[in-house]
Description:
Layout: H1 12-31, E1 32-40, E2 52-55, E3 58-68, E4 75-82, E5 94-98, E6 101-103, E7 106-108, H2 112-115, E8 118-122, E9 132-134, E10 148-155, E11 166-169, E12 172-182, E13 189-196, E14 208-211, E15 216-220, E16 223-227, H3 231-236, E17 239-242, E18 258-262
Amino acid sequence: LRIRRRLPTVWLIPLVATVIGxxxxxxxxxxxxxxxIITFQNAEGLEAGRTRIKCKNVEVGxxxxxxxxxxxxxxDVTAELTxxxxxxxxxxxxxxxxxxxxxxxxxxxxxxxxxxxxxxMDPGEPGTPPxxxxxxxxxxxxxxxxxxxxxxxxxxxxxxMNIGSPVYFRQIPVGDVAGYDLERDGKAVFVxxxxxxxxxxxxxxxxxxxxxxxxxxxxxxxxxxMSSDSVIDLLLGGVAFENPVSLxxxxxxxxxxxxxxxxxxxxxYEKIYQDR
Length: 276
């Protein structure tokens, strides 16, 4: 009699599990991309192993860990990109948390109420990436690959404008307010506006900008006049510009040129006195 020794069927289960485990480990190693740290003010909505990193709404990574920084003032988020998305990471990459927001530029991120918050990524220009990034608290106005130009406006006061307020040309939104700052002596306000291409070609040396937000009330011999571009401008503020026919609308904008920001459309024909 010959006695054949066979492997019991029950041993097939751990054998298959081992093969699957080896395959998963190999697949994770092959698809592993760069790991880095993003610093935020708080980690609301972020969860290790579940929060995704997206670029143009395409998933490119995941959050691996969330912990307090050494000084306990901020939050360090350890993120990992996939191998296919490793080329997107550069020294100019920017990250921000996408949540449901209600701000001056409107309501955004409503989809995160069901799917949860995620980290959005703007690749930026190529460059050797560092190991740690400073995350943005608000979404950027100007994306790295968006074409257009930034112009500087000078006004006596900021008024109802804010970062993200729209810029209009003939009541068509063509850009946004990208930032603002006080002049060194505190006597004026500099406003940075970003105008997207191809509308940036409409701006010339003699282009006139004015504050389109709020209500303009005029009292003269003809009575009281009230004007406002739209209800949106009334609530959120904004900037508008045009090229008066009586002025030269063909000369290009010289470097470091600063435009005057008028209080209303009726005042764009007033003479400007730069030196007082």
